Amino acid sequence: MSQTRLLDRFLEYVKIGSQADFRALTYPSSPGQLEVGKLLLKELHEMGLDESFQDEHGLVHALIPGNPAAPAIALVAHVDTSPESPGDGVKPQIINRYDGSDIVLEGSKKVLSPARYAELANYKGKTLITTDGTTLLGADDKAGVAVIMETAQRLLETPLNHGPVVLLFTCDEEIGHGVDHVDIPEMGVACAYTLDGGPAGELDFATFSADRADVTITGVNIHPSIAKGKMVNAVRLAGIFLERLPRATLSPETTEGMEGFMHPYEITGGVAQAKVSLLLRDFQTPALDQQENLLNEIARQIEKEFPGAKFEIKRTIQYRNMADGMAKEPRAVALAEQAMRNAGVDPKLTSVRGGTDGSRLTERGLPTPNIFCGEHNAHSLDEWCCLEEMEQSVNTVIELVKLWALERD
Ligand SMILES: [Zn+2]
C-alpha cells in the first residue's frame, strides 16, 4: 500500500518541470523548482509539520521532532533536475513486473535494452519507471525527494523511537549551487545524508577533490600580411598546449575508478589572447597540486619555444573529497552501513567520480554521505528508476533513524 503512495508521490514530482538553468541570473535558476517546493510544503503541512517553510531562496525546511537526547540528523535531496537533456513535459512509463525484454519508449520509439544496459537483467519482476524517450525522468533527484517525503510520513504514522530529523530540499544542485544558501549551524545536526544515488546498497562516502584551472594565453597580434617573425598566435598556442596535455592517462576518456584526470572543457579567444579552462580531478587532494605543476611545466616550455607568448594559470577550488571530512563523524557512514543491513540490503561503499551536495556540506564541516534511491542512467533520455529500490531506500532511512536514536553525543 505505502509503496503505491511512494510511487504516486514520485510521479507527481516528476511531472513538474524543474530543470536547473546555467544561464539564469536568478536563484533558484528556474521557477519549476519553486513550484516543486510549494507542493512539498503543502504536503508537509498536511502531514502535520506546521512549522515547515520555504525560505527566500526556495529551499524547503522541515523538522520531525524526536527524542532530544538523541543526536539530530538531516535528510537532504534536490528538487532541480539536470539541464543536460530536455526536462519539461515528462511522461513517465510504468513497467510492472518487468520481464527482462526491451522496453519501448513510446515518445521516441527507441528501446531501453538489456543488450545496451546489462544491469536491466537484474530487475526482472520489478516495477520500473522510465521516460517516454523524449525527456529525462528526473529521478535524479525526485526519487530522493519522494523517499524522504515517504519516510517522513511513515515516521509520523508509526510510533517509533527516533531523534529529531531535519528535512532539507535544495535547489540548483545540478549547476553546483545546491548548498550555497544552507546555514549549517542553524540545522543543528550531527550529520546529514543526501538521498541521491543509484542501485540498492550504494553508499557514497568519497568523491573527487575538484579544482578548475583557467589558462590565459597571451600572444602578439599583428596584421597577417606583415606578420612574419612578429606574430605570436594565441589560438595556435592553445592548440599546442592542448596537444601536450596527457591523453593516454589523466583524461576522462581514458580513466575510470580511482584514477584522476585533467579535462579541458572550454576554449575561447583569438590571436591576441585565448583561454582554456580545465577541470582538475583526483581522489587524493595533493594530486591536484601535481596536476597544476604539470600545466605549469607545459606552459613554461611553450613560452620558451615561442618568445612573446605568455601563459597565466589561475586555479580555483571547487570542492574536496568527502572522505577527508568524514573522519569528524565516523558514525555517519558506519550507521548507514548497519541500517542497510538491518533493512536487508547489502551495503556497497562507493567513491563517486564527481561531486555532490554532500561533498560541499562535508567540506563545510557537516559530514554528509549519500544513500541510494534507485536512480539509473541519470541526466539522459534513458533515465529510469526502480520502485522496489526506492522502497528499500525508505526502509534503510527508517532503520538509520532508529540507530541514531540509540546514540548520544
Ligand atoms: Zn542529483
Under CATH, the topology of the largest domain is which?
Aminopeptidase
Helix content: 25-40%
Bound molecules: zinc ion
Please name the fourth-level CATH homologous superfamily of the largest domain.
Answer: Zn peptidases
What report would you give on this structure?
This protein has 409 residues and is an alpha+beta fold. It has two domains: 2-207 and 321-405, Zn peptidases (Aminopeptidase, 3-Layer(aba) Sandwich); 210-318, 2-Layer Sandwich (Alpha-Beta Plaits), CATH 3.30.70.360. The protein has ten helices and 18 strands. It has helices at residues 2-14, 31-46, 139-157, 184-187, 234-244, 287-305, 322-326, 331-342, 357-363, 387-405, and strands at residues 53-54, 60-64, 73-78, 93-95, 103-105, 110-112, 128-130, 165-170, 191-195, 202-207, 209-218, 261-269, 273-282, 310-319, 348-352, 370-371, 375-376, 384-386. The strands form four sheets. It has an eight-stranded mixed β-sheet with strand order 1-2-8-3-9-16-10-15, with helices on both faces. It has a four-stranded antiparallel β-sheet with strand order 4-7-18-17. A four-stranded antiparallel β-sheet has the order 12-13-11-14. Helix 1 packs antiparallel against helix 3 (139-157) and helix 8 (331-342) packs across helix 10. It is globular, with a radius of gyration of 24 Å. The two termini are 37 Å apart. It binds zinc ion.
